[in-house]
Specification:
This protein is α+β, with helices and mostly antiparallel strands. The protein has six helices and 29 strands. Strand 25 and strand 26 form a beta hairpin. Helix 4 runs antiparallel to helix 5. It starts with a helix and ends with a strand. It comes from Danio rerio. This is Integrin beta-6 isoform X3. Keywords: Integrin.
């Protein structure tokens, strides 16, 4: 069974029959939307996938007879039977109108209602001159194929060839409306239009394949928030962004706090920063959270949060779940303690030192005055107690001192006194 499935996973187109004189080219349009010119096989095809092949058959000359051949995928019974005949001569070819005025005033011959242009002229009515410069105008860049291989160059402009798969358009026929990615076999998942290789999704759908709904109904948790406030809704499924969160709606998180505490750091950073900073962007983007000062939001969907901030303030905000995460509305701080006034404190300290100095100086002066008064009173008391004669000063001492020389001896002479005045 495994080998059989591997064989059936590859679709290869085969050609059977007489193809002599025919020039065939193939383009594979596989199930994943890739277009591969020059190939006639697709791989990794599963049951239910649709693949297509564009086959172009050209003849370089008239065929000697009809050609019968068939196209079919290898291993399949169904086949496309083709019978090809060449019609090289028409009755109108017998009488061509040379230098017809219909063909830009004689630039070609009118045969069977069409102009066969003279050498050097091209166009439906031979209105253009054939030059290398005009052909280069039909290339998207140097080395590119003329008109992207999906059109013809006329007068320096591309005329895109019709395709059975859809519309080919663009200045260089580089765009089409059928080569976009497919989802479950449908172009753009059936919810968008293909525009030049890219899906333009219908309203309400998004993604490369237009297979993701923009509605977040499937991501709403039991508390009414998107992904329990711990992730974002992507393509109808919750992608948890908070470490430790799990579950269909990110409802399980043993290490998480409440939903308000998770977003506190983002709200605080937004309020502290005067201008948007990279630090706040990192904190908020990691939680898939945006901040808005607007008060215009749906209160029924908002979760009011009031927390204690790091500066002992009360932090309040409203948390609203959105399709891409959460939005913090109207964050603000209140009931904050005023910071100390440094200049006032310094002035108070200086005044206190000055007042204490003056007070100490006054106290010292008072003590010195008291001590002096006590000394004066003591002197007055001792003076009052002293008793001596009114003519005698007890403090007076005579200025004359008398000394006696004991070694001096003289016969018949009396001792002499020496008086020295002070």
């Amino acid at each position: 069974m495994t080998s059989y499935k591997e064989l059936r996973s590859e679709i290869d187109l085969e050609v059977l029959g007489n193809t002599e004189g025919l020039q065939m080219s193939f383009t594979a349009l596989c199930q994943d939307g890739t277009i591969t010119p020059g190939h006639k096989n697709c791989t990794n095809v599963k049951a239910g996938d649709v693949v297509s092949f564009n086959v172009t058959v050209e003849i370089k000359g008239c065929l000697g007879g009809p050609r019968r051949f068939s196209l079919r995928p290898v291993g399949f019974q169904d086949a496309l039977e083709i019978e090809l005949e060449s019609q090289c001569v028409c009755s109108c070819h017998q009488t061509p109108e040379t230098n017809s005025s219909f063909c830009s005033r004689g630039r070609g011959a009118l045969e069977c209602g069409e102009c066969v242009c003279d050498p050097g002229f091209v166009g439906p009515k031979c209105e253009c001159t054939e030059s290398q410069d005009q052909v280069s105008d039909c290339r998207a860049n140097e080395g590119a194929e003329v008109c992207s291989g999906q059109g013809e160059c006329f007068c320096g402009q591309c005329v895109c060839l019709p395709s059975s798969f859809g519309r080919v358009y663009g200045p260089y026929c580089e765009c089409d409306n059928f080569s976009c990615l497919r989802f479950r076999g449908e172009l753009c998942g059936g919810h968008g239009e293909c525009d030049c290789g890219e899906c333009v999704c219908d309203s309400g759908w998004m993604g490369e394949f237009c297979n993701c709904s923009t509605s977040n109904r499937s991501c709403v948790s039991s508390d009414g928030s998107v992904c329990s406030g711990r992730g974002r809704c992507v393509c109808g499924k919750c992608e948890c962004s908070v470490p430790g969160a799990s579950g269909k709606h990110c409802e399980r998180c043993p290490t998480c706090g409440d939903i308000c505490s998770i977003h506190r750091s983002c709200a605080e950073c937004f309020l502290k920063a005067k201008e948007p900073s990279d630090e706040c962007a990192v904190k908020c983007s990691s939680l898939h959270t945006a901040v808005s000062n607007s008060t215009d939001f749906e209160e029924s969907r908002a979760a009011p949060c009031t927390l204690q901030s790091e500066e002992s303030c009360l932090l309040s905000f409203s948390l609203v779940a959105s399709d891409h995460g959460s939005i913090i509305y109207n964050p603000k701080l209140y009931d904050c303690s005023e910071p100390p006034n440094a200049p006032l404190i310094a002035l108070g300290v200086c005044m206190s030192v000055l007042i204490i100095g003056i007070a100490l100086l006054v106290i010292w002066k008072f003590l010195v005055s008291v001590h002096d008064r006590k000394e004066v009173a003591k002197f007055e008391a001792e003076k009052a107690k002293a008793k001596w004669q009114s003519g005698t000063n007890p403090l007076f001492r005579s200025s004359t001192s008398t000394f006696k020389n004991v070694t001096y001896k003289s016969t018949g002479q009396q001792k002499s006194d020496v008086s020295l005045g002070r």
